[in-house]
Design goal:
The complex is a heterodimer. Chain A is built from 5 helices and 5 strands. Chain A is of the alpha+beta class. Chain B has a single domain (4-106), classed as HprK N-terminal domain-like (Udp-n-acetylmuramoylalanyl-d-glutamate--2,6- Diaminopimelate Ligase, Chain: A, domain 1), CATH 3.40.1390.20. In chain B, strands 1-5-4-3-2 form a 5-stranded mixed beta sheet. In chain B, helix 3 (51-59) links the parallel strand 3 and strand 4. The chains are: A alpha+beta, B alpha/beta. The A-B interface holds A 16-17, 19-20, 23-24, 27, 41, 44-45, 48-49, 52, 104-106, 108-111, 113-114, 117-118 and B 29-33, 35-36, 40, 48, 50-53, 55-56, 58-61, 76, 84.
Amino acid sequence: MSEAITLRYTVPGDDFTRAGEASADVKRNLKRMGVDREAVRKAAIALYEGEINLAIHAGGGEITVTLTPDTIVMLLEDHGPGIPDISLAMSEGWSTAPDEVRSLGFGAGMGLPNMKKYSDRFDIQSTVGVGTTIRMEVDLA
Amino acid sequence: MTTELLRQLDFTPLVDAEEREITGGFCGDLLSWAMGRCTEGQVWFTVMGNLNAVAVASLADAAAIVLCHGAALMPDALARARSEGINVFATDLPEYEACVAFAREME
């Protein structure tokens, strides 16, 4: 593989039946391309958490996944309310998810921590009232 | 040990997908918790029978979901499990008892 391959998705807000479609599609595509199994698993989990966050907190957003010869790069961009305290949001167990979302089994405060855990590099930039951008990279074995 | 073990434990198959090797078990109902801790090939014991639980099992590469306490598998989740090839079983046993029965057989 000599060139980067890019996949783009739009995640709708508040639709938890569709959240997960992008990560499932990325997983299918990467597996078909013969990408290392553990790297695919890590990327799919990190991306699914991101999709759920976009649906719950941001009113939706955009995902761009780029596969280079040695890295899976995932960019998540939204124009939601932003995160006032990123370090608090990154701590395990901290959640602002509403009850409706908790009843589905989400809202454990593990979304952002899992995204970081399953990425080899993780960066988050957020401005209140403007939105949030997250970049995650998973190295190929 | 394969997912055939779950049949031998009298768990009811709801979605009969490909037989998978079992590496262990995981029990819990919070999806992000399961996502971060249920590892490839594990059997996931839960009461969450919704679409998102099936997505988590698929992304985490769980060998099977066992719905405990007689929890229902939602129709859209059933369809997704079939299309994604996720084994789903059901039991009336509480999660603890289902896990104990499973763990005894895994020893």
